[in-house]
Amino acid sequence: MTREEKFMHEAISLSRLGMGQNAGGPFGCIVVKDNQIVGRGNNCVTSHNDPTAHAEVMAIRDACKNLNSFQLDDCEIFTSCEPCPMCLGAIYWARPKAIYYANTREDAARIGFDDSMIYDEMSKPMHIRKIPIIHMNKEEAMKVFEEWIDKTDKTDY
Amino acid sequence: MTREEKFMHEAISLSRLGMGQNAGGPFGCIVVKDNQIVGRGNNCVTSHNDPTAHAEVMAIRDACKNLNSFQLDDCEIFTSCEPCPMCLGAIYWARPKAIYYANTREDAARIGFDDSMIYDEMSKPMHIRKIPIIHMNKEEAMKVFEEWIDKTDKTDY
Fold it and tell me: Is A56 labeled as catalytic in the residue annotation?
């Protein structure tokens, strides 16, 4: 077994464990740094009443807490299924060095998780999306962005 | 002031408040149901060491906790800036009825938040993305999906 296979096996084991505990859907994820597991997560959407509690989000939050950082520099993400748009976005904000996945978004769709639909919506023009999205009050909001630019004690990220 | 302007003003006020408290970036969001605010959030990435702690994710988690549900049926989201891909994904999973936003992804990019880059990455073929993404071990992971299909006591969502 390669190191990657070993770590993916851990992520898949978490997906089975969470499912067995009725935590949520059959998805698991680990974060690895310097060949050590620094974060673990499994889907907890239905048990936590939290639609953001996907395996990747849980694992990223766990790793960031353990590493005391809001970045996952030099980390690798092993996830039992291709990340949905929310999780892929979370991964990009966390900035790990690589992502490994096993099941695909099409596999997820076949068992009832509609990641593919959300990927399709992302790239559609706003006016034809399933959830209406309306632009308003830009002038008031822009003032806060201007205040951010002028702020001298901010933490950039 | 329309009801929408009133609610957007609340979201923008939260963006300014969080910035002033050095919680994180200048972003605020509220969730509204039946004309009542049921969830609030502002960006807490740097103060919580959590790259997923965007205003929308915080507000969705708060609303779901308050409503004791993993769905935001009949809710409206008011966010001071166009949701990034992570947050738009979170919103789709939460299934509200509408989204209102003020600043745009281009405005966010101009003050240093690279939402646009992540949107671009989402639609690229995997092999040319900035973060390498590698497919492996599908056979082992697929067994867990098959177990999910056969599971008789699962909570679908």
Answer: yes
Residue A136, φ and ψ in degrees, nearest 5: -160, 165
pLDDT in tens, B128-137: 999 999 999 9
Which of B 11-40 lie inside 8 A of A, CB atoms? 12, 15-16, 19, 22, 24-26
Look-up: residue for tokens 């969830």? B39
Residue A138: partners with Cβ closer than 8 Å, 6 or more residues away: B102, B103, B104, B107
**What is the nearest CA distance from A118 to chain B, expressed in angstroms?**
7
The minimal CB distance from A19 to the residues B19, B133, B151 is found for B151
Query: Model confidence over B40-50: pLDDT tens digits?
Result: 999 999 999 99
User: Read out DSSP for A75-139?
Assistant: EEEEEEEPPPHHHHHHHHHH--SEEEEEE-HHHHHHTT--HHHHHHHHTS-GGGSSS-EEE--HH
Nearest Cα neighbor of A56 from A95, A8, A90, A7 is: A90
CA B2 from chain centre, in angstroms, equals 25
Does position A157 have pLDDT exceeding 90, yes or no? no
Q: What is the C-alpha to C-alpha distance for residues A92 and A84, in angstroms, rounded to an integer?
A: 12
Tens of pLDDT, residue by residue over A59-116, are 999 999 999 999 999 999 999 999 999 999 999 999 999 999 999 999 999 999 988 8
